Amino acid sequence: MSEVIGPQASLWSCGRIQLRVIGALMLREMGTRFGRDNLGYVWLFLEPMLLGGAIGALHQLSGHALPGGLEPFVFWVIGYIPFYLFRGIVNRAPVGIVGNQSLLYHRRITVFDIMLSRHLLEGAAVGIALAFYIALFGATVDVWPVETAKMVLGMVLMLGLAHGIALLIAAGSVYTELFDRITHLATYLSMGLTGAFFMVFWLPSDMQRAVLTIPTVHCFELVRNGLYGNQVPTHYDVPYVVAWIAALNLLGMAALRKARRHLIV
Amino acid sequence: MIRLHDVHKSYPTHFGPKEVLRGVDITFMPGEKVGILGRNGAGKSTLLRLIAGVEHPNRGRVERRMSVSWPLGFAGAMHYSISGADNARFLARIYDKPIKETVEFVENFADLGHYFRMPVRTYSSGMTVRLGFSLSLAVQFDCYLVDEAIAVGDSRFAERARAALADLNARASLLLVSHQAETVRAFCKTAAILEDGRLIRYDDLDQAIAAYQAA
Question: Which Pfam families match (chain B) (predicted)?
Answer without folding.
Answer: ABC_tran
